[in-house]
Amino acid sequence: MLQRRYDNITQSLFDRAQTLGIETGLDRLERQEPQCAFGQLGSCCRMCYMGPCRIDPFGNGSQRGVCGATVDTIVCRNLLREEVGGAASHAGHARHVMLTFKKMLEGRAPGYKITDREKLMEVARGLGIETEGRSDEEIALEVADKALEDFTRQDDGILNWMRLRAPEKAIKKWEKLGILVSNAHNEIEEAMHRTSMGNDADPVNLLLGALRIGLVDGYAGLHIATDFQDIMFGTPRVRKIEASPGVLEPNMVNIAMHGHNPLLSEKILERAGRLSDEARAQGAEGINVVGVCCTGNELTMRHNVPMAAHNLQSELLLLTGAVDAMVVDVQCIWPGSQRIAECFHTKVITTEPFVKIPGATHIAFEPEEADQKAELIVKEAIEAFTRRKGRDVFIPEGKTTALVGFSVEAIIDVLKKINPEDPLMPVIDNIKSGNIFGAVGFAGCPSIKLRHTGMTEKMVREMLKNNILVVTTGCTAHICAQAGFMNTDATEKYCGEGLKAVLSALGDAAGLGAPLPPVWHMGSCVDNSRIASLLGALADRLGVDVSDLPVAGSAPELVQEKAISIGTWLLALGLLVHIAPHPRIMGSPVAVKVLTEGLRDLTGGRAYVELDPQKASEGIIEHIRERRKALGI
Ligand code: BF8
Ligand code: SF4
Predict the structure, then answer these.
(1) Is 71-233 assigned to CATH 2.60.120.10?
(2) Of all protein residues, whose CA lies closest to atom 2 belonging to ligand 2?
(3) Packing angle between helix 71-105 and helix 561-573, nearest 10 degrees?
(4) Which of 23, 411, 511, 606 lies in the 20 to 30 Å Cα band around 156?
């Protein structure tokens, strides 16, 4: 009998799985429990074949690995390797987009184009590229080469994208610590090298290495990805959408886009639009593309595509029997999805040659043939629909509406309507007056281990009640949309008086005729770049460091290594970063001390581990109060 119970919609899908006798992640989790304590504490080492060695931090048994490594060395090495996994994912994503952009300019990827010329010019000017009297293509090529340099240079210069996007004060801070980075690939290589057997044994040095990888993640990963995606597919603007698995349509061809890279999902969406007659000819009412996880965030922010599911719901969505094809690219794709798909007519289609799942259909998606490949994939979905026709489906009832698309540009546009010369001033005034007590970015994943506690929803409600504005990205954005935090009614329902007044004024300025929602959807996980840009702009305008702002970050249901690397970047920037469940550092007294205390004197950042939503909220609010006091407000 399964122990945990989730929100109604998620639970209804788990219940259906039980009824049909289909295994889900929850069955597998409960069979795994109790999970290995050494693994959870980070104190197991498999770096060489004299091991594996494991250290009990409570003093029982051997206190050193065979080679003599201490628990601090072991934990910090493991942490750094986790981060490499995260940063490699983000850097790989960014490089893929940037190289496709370059191919497009060279005429080798005709399916793509420059959509946001203004953003291109903003990036070019920021990089110091001459824009006068040159064609867009010439400028764009130089922009691409600058990005490429961040993966190829062998000198000591710093990442071009760090110069472009990091606040000046932060760069100075990192320079003092000796952690400026120049080439994403070199850093990833060095981190793997220093953590292999018989290299760096100094836990503090390893933690500084972790900060370096955080910077790689932030600038060579997130920022490069966001910038090129905006240039190619458009910078998001505020729009109204629907969320929850209930967005599936029983009589349409349902294509669930899952993964991360808009290079694929944009083309599938475009081709689905063109092939709707073909779907109708097969008896469907059309083609319904819905979004899962981060690629879902990308699509919804640019094209109103409904947000169907967060990561925990990704395999559950297939239990509806209504998904004709789940099309995936990279990251966060559960291999278990294919096992569920096999119980129905559903096709799981993998598209990236280095991401295959046994049993799934593989159609390699190359940017050179994007249109043809996208057409092939949509036709596979239509074909699957013909096999579903007439069979029962189970689509959980209940959809929410949400306003999404809060890019920095979209936010500034609204603020300009209040103060065209100094758009950030109204925000600053309201922070000073306390109408906005602070702001918290909720990012990251839905944890199957914590989702049943409603960790994220409880914390968000607590923030709003205390006049703290919430911005969100990634799967947390799906959770917030499904919880109804992103529509205008939520402002009245959840916010303290001060925040309510500000959001009403902003809603009027935006011509909404209603308040802005209290939780702003800023995008996918790579779009945590947008949150950092907003904070950087606010700090610059106030003449302070980002670490001085009355703000914090929270990954309340951490799952992925990527969340660890993003979190470390935010620590390097100087933020309080709340994390649950426990990161795998608790076995090391040095790691715990440095990350939860010592770092304050180095970057201003602090990791904060707390699994109780009420206590975690109080801790964050206390931090914001301290920051306000230090600013004299
Ligand atoms: O990059 S929030 S489960 S989908 S890791 Fe993955 Fe976590 Fe979702 Fe997007 Ni981000
Ligand atoms: Fe054990 Fe050291 Fe080898 Fe790790 S590197 S497995 S601690 S001997």
Answers:
(1) no
(2) 67
(3) 90
(4) 606
Strand, helix or coil for residue 128: coil
- Quick one: pLDDT band at residue 2, thresholds 50, 70, 90? low
Spatial contact of 24 and 316, defined as CB atoms under 8 Å apart: yes
pLDDT at 390: 81
Structural contact between residues 259 and 268, judged by C-beta atoms closer than 8 angstroms: no
Q: From CA 70, how far away is CA 62, in angstroms rounded?
A: 10
Q: Which ligand is nearest to the CA of 62?
A: 2
Burial of 336 (0-12, 13-18, 19+ CB in 10 A): middle
3-42 residue pLDDT tens: 799 999 999 999 999 999 999 999 999 999 999 999 999 9
Chain mean position to CA 36: 27
Give me the residue spans of the domains in the chain.
71-233, 245-388, 403-631
Tell me the residue length of the chain.
633
Question: 403-631 adopts what CATH topology?
Answer: Rossmann fold (3.40.50)
pLDDT at residue 389 greater than cutoff 90: no
The answer to whether the 71-233 and 245-388 domains have the same CATH topology is no
Strand, helix or coil for residue 274: helix
At 480, which helix (H) or strand (E)?
Answer: helix 474-482
Judge contact between 290 and 306, C-beta under 8 A. yes
Distance CA(342)–CA(346), nearest Å, equals 7
Distance CA 447, CA 418 (A): 40
Question: Best substitution site from 44, 47, 64, 71 to test ligand 2's pocket, by max atoms within 8 Å of Cβ?
Answer: 47
Please state, in angstroms and rounded to a whole number, the distance separating the CA atoms of residues 287 and 37.
47
Determine whether the shortest distance from the Cβ of 261 to ligand 1 is under 6 A. no
Instruction: Identify whether the C-beta of residue 499 lies closer than 8 Å to the C-beta of residue 470.
Output: no
Phi, psi torsion values for 432, nearest 5 degrees: -60, -45
Q: Which ligand is nearest to the CA of 43?
A: 2
Give every CB contact of residue 92 below 8 A, 6+ residues apart in sequence: 330
- For ligand 1, the distance from its centroid to the CA atom of residue 245, given in whole angstroms, is 17
Reduced to 3 states (helix: H, G, I; strand: E, B; else coil), residue 179 is: coil
| Residue owning tokens 């005729």 | 513
Specify burial of residue 614 (Cβ count, 10 A radius: 0-12, 13-18, 19+).
Answer: exposed
